[in-house]
């Protein structure tokens, strides 16, 4: 029986893959600091990670071309958030389920604050998972992208790549001992990037001579020599 929608993400193979991705992500995300974070996930009952230095989470679930969760909206339209709203944006298998992948990635960068972290997880398109994923998703289009392509797009958008790593089992049915996380042939990937902070332009204050009427007493903060020069020109 084939699985449709985000039901596939609660299957045993993908659940194990998501657990491996979470084990790689958690130490990296513990450093994130801020007031607001956004979790955009293809998993309906996904839970935001517990990060002590982050405040409020906004959770959106992507399913059948729409956002649900803390708000409802069409997934092919810009997210209803102001620019630079979040200090962390976590896309948990969301890009491969989006009907507008490039637009979603650009929108995630838009709502990410300067200095903030963007974390992306997904199934690696060059892995032993692809036959299984195609069979499970029959009748639905797959939108998988190489991490190298994502790196290039994010660098073009002004982000710095901090981590790209393959994780999880090499194929869904692989038997392993212990808890597998990092794996050069893993079926999933984790990508972490940071948005560059805006460069402030230092301002140079230009002194301006203040005309002072003659015969008046100067205020204590007025430079007397400047005032006299101005009065002399008059």
Q: DSSP strand (E) fraction?
A: 25-35%
Low-confidence stretches: 226-232
The whole-number mean of residue pLDDT values reads 83
Helix content: 10-25%
Count of separate DSSP helical elements: 5
What structural class results from the helix and strand content? alpha/beta
Distance between the termini: 94 Å
Q: In terms of quaternary structure, what is this?
A: single chain
| Major sheet description | 8 strands, mixed
Rg, nearest Å: 26 Å
Shape: elongated
Describe this structure in words.
The chain is an alpha/beta fold and 234 residues long. The chain is built from 5 helices and 8 strands; from the N terminus they run αβββββαβααββα. The protein has helices at residues 12-29, 101-111, 130-136, 147-156, 224-233, and strands at residues 34-41, 54-63, 66-69, 73-74, 86-92, 112-123, 159-167, 188-195. The chain has an 8-stranded mixed β-sheet, sandwiched between helices. Strand 5, helix 2 (101-111) and strand 6 (112-123) form a beta-alpha-beta unit. The longest helix is centred in the first third of the chain and has 18 residues, at 12-29. The chain starts with 11 loop residues before the first helix and ends with a helix. 31% of the residues are buried. Residues 226-232 have low confidence and may be disordered.
């Amino acid at each position: 029986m084939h699985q449709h929608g985000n039901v596939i993400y609660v299957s045993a193979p993908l659940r194990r893959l998501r657990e491996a991705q979470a084990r790689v992500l958690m130490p990296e995300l513990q450093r994130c600091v801020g007031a607001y974070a956004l979790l955009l996930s293809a998993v309906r009952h996904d839970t935001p990670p517990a990060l002590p230095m982050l405040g409020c989470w906004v959770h959106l679930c992507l399913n059948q071309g729409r956002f649900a969760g803390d708000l409802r909206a069409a997934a092919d339209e810009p997210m209803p958030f102001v620019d630079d709203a979040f200090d962390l944006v976590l896309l948990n298998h969301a890009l491969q389920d989006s009907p507008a992948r490039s637009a979603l990635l650009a929108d995630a960068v838009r709502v990410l604050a300067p200095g903030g972290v963007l974390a992306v997880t997904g199934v690696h398109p060059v892995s032993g998972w692809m036959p299984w994923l195609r069979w499970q998703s029959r009748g639905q289009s797959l939108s998988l992208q190489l991490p190298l392509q994502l790196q290039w797009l994010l660098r073009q958008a002004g982000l710095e790549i901090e981590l790209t790593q393959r994780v999880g089992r090499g194929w869904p049915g692989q038997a392993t001992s212990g808890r597998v996380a990092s794996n050069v042939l893993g079926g999933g990937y984790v990508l972490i990037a940071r948005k560059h902070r805006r460069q402030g332009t230092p301002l140079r204050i230009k002194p301006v001579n203040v005309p002072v009427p003659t015969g008046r007493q100067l205020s204590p903060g007025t430079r007397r020599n400047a005032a006299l020069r101005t009065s002399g020109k008059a």
